[in-house]
Amino acid sequence: IDAFPNDFVDVHSHVLPNLDDGPSTIDESILLLDRLKSYGIRKMICTPHIMEGIWENTSDLINVRTQQMRHQLKLSNAEDIAIKAAAEYMVDDNFRALLARNELMTFGDNLVLIEIHFFSPPLDLYELLFQLRLMNSWPVIAGPERYRVFFVNSAEI
Questions:
Q1: I need a surface site. Which of 104, 109, 122, 147 has the fewest CB within 10 A?
Q2: Cα–chain center distance at 8
Q3: What does DSSP say about strands 138-141 and 88-90: parallel, antiparallel, or unpaired?
Q4: d(CA 85, CA 33)
Q5: What is the pLDDT of residue 153?
Q6: 144: left (phi over 0), alpha (psi -120 to 50) or beta
Q7: What element of type H or E holds 6?
Q8: pLDDT by residue (tens digit) across 122-147?
Q9: Helix H segments across the chain?
Q10: Cα(109)–Cα(150) distance, integer angstroms
Q11: What is the rounded distance in angstroms from the CA atom of residue 14 to the CA atom of residue 88?
């Protein structure tokens, strides 16, 4: 049963093996992709975490793993699953450096997937978002429901 429209694209996907908290092996990745396909998801942006000191992924590594996954999908006769590469960036010093060098992996119409610490956004968050916009990029916050710091309880006003 297809639960999603044919043109649906999952833009926040941890399906590449052994890069972050996603699958550990290529076989696990294929099983995960098969499950997503069974729901009707056939297009996705692979967005491994890039987080200083935890997941030190690079655009080169993510691109190589994406190519390897495409090859494996071809070998598995699952070429109807389309994957592209991007990243999910923790807003940290590494993100700042990549932003300054204009080396962020984007998807769609120059979108950048970001995450911040749950309880305390960086003091320069708005400046960093402004810098992204100056570079004609749009920030997309991964899992916005997790960021209680941005919500105002109307009962407390």
A1: 109
A2: 16
A3: unpaired
A4: 15
A5: 62
A6: alpha
A7: none
A8: 899 999 999 999 999 999 999 888 87
A9: 26-38, 59-75, 93-100, 125-134
A10: 25
A11: 9
CA atoms within 13 Å, Cβ hemisphere of 148: 3
Q: Which helix (H) or strand (E) holds 58?
A: none
Q: Give pLDDT tens digits for 11-44.
A: 999 999 999 999 999 999 999 999 999 999 999 9
Report the percentage of the chain scoring pLDDT > 90. Answer: 79
**Rounded to whole angstroms, how far apart are CA atoms 94 and 29?**
27
> Do 77 and 50 meet the contact criterion of CB atoms below 8 Å apart?
no
Cβ neighbour number for residue 23 with a 10 Å cutoff: 19
pLDDT digits (tens, 9 = 90+) for 104-127: 999 999 999 999 987 788 899 999
Residue 68 pLDDT more than 90? yes
Give me the phi and psi of 128, to 5 degrees please: -65, -40
Residues 122 and 112: their CA atoms lie apart, in Å, by 17
Tell me the three state secondary structure of residue 41: coil
What is the identity of the amino acid at 14? H
Residue 67's φ and ψ, nearest 5 degrees, are: -60, -40
Tell me what pLDDT residue 79 has.
Answer: 84
